Amino acid sequence: AGILVVNQSGANAQAVAEHTVAMMLSLTKNIVQTDRSLRKERGVDREVFKGRNAQGRTVGIIGLGNVGRRVAHICTLGLGMRVLAYDPYLSAADCQERGATAVDLDTLLAHSPIL
């Protein structure tokens, strides 16, 4: 009897990483707000809802495990973003290998407009 607990580390990591990046882009591109405005008012003031390009922007990732490393990969190679990462379990070289620059948590929070 009891409850079976299973760790499926990495089983859905790619799906979660893709969803994370999709939500990040949705926020930076104002997709939800623009959609709601279009449905309600039948028009959009481009200056109000203009999104920002991802390329060249900085994203901060806390933890470069199964999901974090995939998010870093998509952001660097797919979107041309700069990735800062805080992971107390990885060396700076390990972070670099996973596509991110290792920084302490305070630096990450201070220099990452996207977390």
UniProtKB/TrEMBL annotation:
It comes from the Bacteria. The keyword Coiled coil does not apply. InterPro entries: D-2-hydroxyacid_DH, D-isomer_DH_CS1, D-isomer_DH_NAD-bd, NAD(P)-bd_dom_sf. Belongs to the D-isomer specific 2-hydroxyacid dehydrogenase family. It comes from Tectimicrobiota bacterium. Residues 21-114 form the D-isomer specific 2-hydroxyacid dehydrogenase NAD-binding domain. GO terms for molecular function: NAD binding; oxidoreductase activity. Pfam families: 2-Hacid_dh_C. The keyword Ribosomal protein does not apply. PROSITE patterns: D_2_HYDROXYACID_DH_1. Keywords: NAD, Oxidoreductase. This is 3-phosphoglycerate dehydrogenase.
